[in-house]
Amino acid sequence: DADVTQTPRNRITKTGKRIMLECSQTKGHDRMYWYRQDPGLGLRLIYYSFDVKDINKGEISDGYSVSRQAQAKFSLSLESAIPNQTALYFCASQREGNYNEQFFGPGTRLTVL
Amino acid sequence: AQSVAQPEDQVNVAEGNPLTVKCTYSVSGNPYLFWYVQYPNRGLQFLLKYITGDNLVKGSYGFEAEFNKSQTSFHLKKPSALVSDSALYFCAVRDMTTAAGNKLTFGGGTRVLVKP
């Protein structure tokens, strides 16, 4: 089984709709992250969490919110989706320590019409 | 602020030839450096990292990278490329000495195409 899972894998929605992307990890990591990937821009950090009570904004948090329901679960919400939020979204987890690598989920392809 | 540059959008190489993917970085303090690979329809996979010590780092699938502090570079290399190495490669940096190091900053990615 995959260590970091994301649901759904693909989603098409309409402008103005609320949508939630979910992420779970079985690695026992404290740190979890949400990124979006756009062609040529690499991955940009939306939000990150170092434990259940610690949520931090990344470089592009406007229009997004997150919830860390448990150590293993970190969900991303788009309260009112807009077309420029069409992107590939990745969740990642990491063991504590800035020198440790991150483990990524398979991604969610989101299209906002 | 920390940043990463991958100057080549795409690298084309013949199978069996050496492969190099370039990366330069900027941090206020000392860097932690990472390479990840993304195969089609997959998440990113960790290849290797530089934390401290030997400037030549060996990683997965026969890849290695050389840390050069004076040139602020961390180029990824493979002596003999395989068709299966065709993928999108990302360099990433963390500043180990400032609060910015809580976050990983990625380059824009380099697409590698290995032709038979």
Descriptive key words:
heterodimer; A: 113 residues; mainly beta; seven-stranded mixed β-sheet; globular; B: mainly beta; six-stranded mixed β-sheet; four-stranded antiparallel β-sheet; 0% helix
Report what the structure shows.
The complex is a heterodimer of chains A (113) and B (116). Chain A is mostly beta strands and 113 residues long. Chain A is 0% helix and 58% strand. Chain A has strands at 4-7, 10-13, 19-25, 31-38, 42-51, 54-57, 64-70, 73-78, 87-94, 102-104, 108-112. In chain A, strands 2, 4, 5, 6, 9, 10 and 11 form a seven-stranded mixed sheet that branches. In chain A, a hairpin with a 3-residue loop joins strand 4 and strand 5. Chain A is globular, with a radius of gyration of 13 Å. Helix content of chain B is 0%, strand content 52%. Chain B contains no helices and twelve strands. Chain B has strands at 3-5, 10-14, 19-21, 24-26, 31-38, 44-50, 56-58, 64-68, 73-78, 87-95, 105-106, 110-115. Chain B is globular and about 45 Å long. The mean pLDDT of chain B is 92. Classes of the chains: A mainly beta (113), B mainly beta (116). Chains A and B meet through strand 5 and strand 10 of A and strand 5 and strand 6 of B.
Lay out the secondary structure.
The complex is a heterodimer of chains A (113) and B (116).
Chain A: E1 4-7, E2 10-13, E3 19-25, E4 31-38, E5 42-51, E6 54-57, E7 64-70, E8 73-78, E9 87-94, E10 102-104, E11 108-112
Parallel strand pairs in A: 2-11
Antiparallel strand pairs in A: 1-3, 3-8, 4-5, 4-9, 5-6, 7-8, 9-10, 9-11
Chain B: E1 3-5, E2 10-14, E3 19-21, E4 24-26, E5 31-38, E6 44-50, E7 56-58, E8 64-68, E9 73-78, E10 87-95, E11 105-106, E12 110-115
Parallel strand pairs in B: 2-12
Antiparallel strand pairs in B: 1-4, 3-9, 5-6, 5-10, 7-8, 8-9, 10-11, 10-12
Q: What percent of residues of chain B are in strands?
A: over 45%
Q: What is the 3D shape of chain A? A: globular
What is the helical fraction of chain A, as a range of percent? under 10%
Number of separate strands of chain B: 12
Number of strands of chain A: 11
Task: Tell me the helix content of chain B.
Answer: under 10%
Form type of chain B: globular
